[in-house]
Amino acid sequence: MIFAIALLLGILAAVLMVLLVAYARSRERIDLLYRLRMYCTEEIVVKNELPVISRIMDFVRRTATPLGRFKPIELYGIRMRRAGLPILGSEFAAILLISALAMGVFTFFLTLDETYAIITAIAIVIIEDVMVALRIRRRRSAFVNQLGDCLATVADSMRAGFSFTQSMEVIVRDMEPPISDEFARVMRDLSAGVSLERALEDMDRRVNSMEFSLVVTAVLIQRQVGGNLASILDTISETVVEHIKMQRELKTLTAQGRATAKTLAALPFVCLAGMYFFARENLMFFIENDIGRIAGVLAVISEAIGLYLVNRITNLEDV
Q1: Which of 90, 151, 158, 263 is positioned for an S-S bond with 237, CB 3.0–4.6 A?
Q2: 161-197 residue pLDDT tens
Q3: Torsion from C-alpha of 52, 38, 80, 25, nearest 10 degrees
């Protein structure tokens, strides 16, 4: 019974992910309207969509409209831009809310246990949020890996007589996503009348990369005080390439520590799940007994401290 429930929940979660991806991809055709829709008073009609996808989009938009009034939802908007998903933050929040409620209600009718329903709803939210975080991390990593070649191409183009804006057009035309997509958005901003400084700063916020922040700073300083930008970009390109090599070496050296941290993080939850299903009376000791509750709290605090220390030791973000 438990295996069947777990399998069914996994299938439903996969279906929700497929619908989310389909919804996001359907919005790629109207990426230019991403910002304009916030200033339009009339409903924007998108033609030639599948009926199912169209209904899903309409329902999500109606649900997202009241959510967009809350300031914390803006954080989701920033995350959507960093993940490269052409949906608003309020729409993603609506997707989280709808999927959590739907899965929670379905699980309750399946098991008649509100505990399972709450756990399932929370799990769906966590899974979807983690998937977006992983997409952001992969996209940032791919961007940084392309940055060295991008800077070298821009420097060579400027030596050939191109301006910095024309060099960005070369990047859009010749390089692969995600870096070409980001520079294409900068070019669209410039076409809409946004200054180059503002467009690059917006791109820096979207990418959220220390390496690209260095590039933006160099370009802005050069535009204010002058200098040989091609030579500066060559130097930054070499620095970025060496930094990536060092990070890869450190990642290899700390692989065992990071695996240990993940194992330690998952082991208590696996043990709790096993005790809940196969030895519930032992688990009740940590809930009903005063000494058990104290031991449980101390165990949680100790694990949190241990995970923090291991994460700090093996953290490569600040390197």
Answers
A1: 151
A2: 888 888 888 998 888 888 888 899 899 988 888 888 8
A3: 30
Residue 293 identity: R
Instruction: Give the residue among 13, 17, 35, 15 at the shortest CA–CA distance from 25.
Output: 17
The stretch 98-115 carries a mean pLDDT of 81
Task: Please give the C-alpha separations between residue 180 and each of 52, 75, 151, 201, 226, in angstroms, as whole numbers.
Answer: 31, 24, 12, 17, 26
| Identity of residue 135 | R
The values of phi and psi at residue 10, to 5°, are -65, -40
How many CA atoms within 13 Å lie on the side-chain side of 274? 6
CATH of 142-243, one of 1.10.3210, 1.10.10, 2.30.29, 1.20.81: 1.20.81
Within 10 Å of residue 28's Cβ, how many Cβ atoms?
12
pLDDT digits (tens, 9 = 90+) for 211-261: 888 888 888 888 888 778 888 888 888 888 888 888 888 888 878 777 877
Q: pTM value?
A: 0.69
Q: Which amino acid is at 228?
A: N
Q: Phi, psi (5° rounding) for residue 238?
A: -65, -40
Residue 4, number of CB atoms within 10 A of its CB: 9
Which sequence spans correspond to the domains of the chain? Answer: 2-112, 142-243, 254-314
> Kind and range of the H or E element at 23?
helix 2-27
Tracing tokens 């777990």 back to the chain, one arrives at: 6
Residue 87's SS3 state is coil
Q: Is the pLDDT of residue 262 over 70?
A: yes
The reported pLDDT for the residue numbered 233 is 86
